Amino acid sequence: MAATPSAPGKAEMIDLTKLSPEQLLQIKQEFEQEMTNIQDSLSTLHGCKAKYAGSKEALETFHADWENREILVPLTSSMYVPGRVKDLNNFVIDIGTGYYIEKDLDGSKDYFKRRVEYVQEQIEKIEKIHLQKTRFLNSVIGVLELKQAAAAKVLQAQQQSAAPQNS
Question: In this structure, which of 14, 27, 75, 139 has its CB flanked by the most CB atoms within 10 Å?
Answer without folding.
Answer: 27
